[in-house]
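Batch manifest line 351
LIGAND: zinc ion
JOB: complex structure
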Amino acid sequence: MRGFAMLKIGETGWIEKPKPVAGPYDAIVAPLAIAPCTSDIHTVYSGAIGERHNLILGHEAVGQVVEVGKEVSYIKAGDRVVVPAITPNWRTLQIQHGVPHQHSESLLSGWKFSNDKDGVFAEFFHVNDADMNLAKLPNEISLEAASMMPDMMTTGFHGAELANIQIGSNVAVIGIGPVGLMGVAGAVLRGAARIFAVGSRPKCVELAKFYGATDIVNYKNGDIVQQILDLNHGQVDHVIVAGGNESVLGQAVEMLKPGGTIGNINYFGEGKTLDIPRLAWGCGMAHKTIYGGLCPGGRARMERMIAIVLAGRVDPSKLITHPFKGLEGVEKGLNLMKDKPAEVVKPLALI
Ligand code: NDP
Ligand code: ZN
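JOB STATUS: finished
ARTIFACT:
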């Protein structure tokens, strides 16, 4: 089968590999829609997970099941499914001891596609623990909307969950790429009052307003902490961090009220340590909490994403600015994500 792969750090290309084989609990899926992600760019061009050779990329997919293992009972060949980016092994003691499922076997072990096995940018891909990881896609939901569930929706919403947003609270969302935009939508779902969205690209600003931001802050127009303090007449209750460099975590602490919560979903790719401003953190006594997490996966989580879209609460298909036809579209889409012209929010390849 054909797949679009990381050949080595800094290099991508099309390769041929044998079709994957399903173990007793697994499924083999053919993609219907696949989306490149900022994380694929970090994997290939920043060496975020270290060197990989001929590893098929991609972790955001909707597909059709072509084969299931003999112990799989809920999922059948022919089902159209949403495939979460995070597909843990659910049969672990760690999960039963309360370890978040993203780390079911070890740190980040729930992230399997294009990390420790081939990803979804191929004619076929392998899904472990199919009954626990795949959600059936209702006919009423478009492939465009469904393809934003495996990572963009679940990650952005996780930012709102980690930030523990309360009804009527004021929230800053730092970064309004596709992840932060779903953070804005998640803040609305959790009942935020004012939402200060930080970004600069006009298309992202337009979408931030569409998803419910009440105020826009451009980090290119000066210190975002001061801008938000001025607009809000003081510190905010919660911050979602979904973009920016190593200094944004410190800025989040500075703009946060004592007792407030930060939900970080940003990837920090530089430096050995991250700075926390001592005074703004109350010399350690401000009851400001920082959570950081990987996007939740699994079937139940995807079924919740489906429920949100079915109920008409959020339309994630608006994130797709560059749809392409055919598997080849992932290469064009990935190159767009790499260069990120201002009008790109999310590319998609429809197969
Ligand atoms: P984008 O690059 O599309 O968006 C980044 C956003 O951050 C943009 O709005 C950008 O503004 C803004 N930004 C850039 N620099 C600054 C700055 N100095 N201060 C404030 N804002 C800034 O990324 P994505 O939305 O695709 O992804 C966001 C992050 O989430 C990435 O780090 C990605 O790796 C991570 N991620 C994490 C996952 C998880 O499981 N936790 C899953 C998927 C992604 P501008 O409008 O100027 O571009
Ligand atoms: Zn992704």
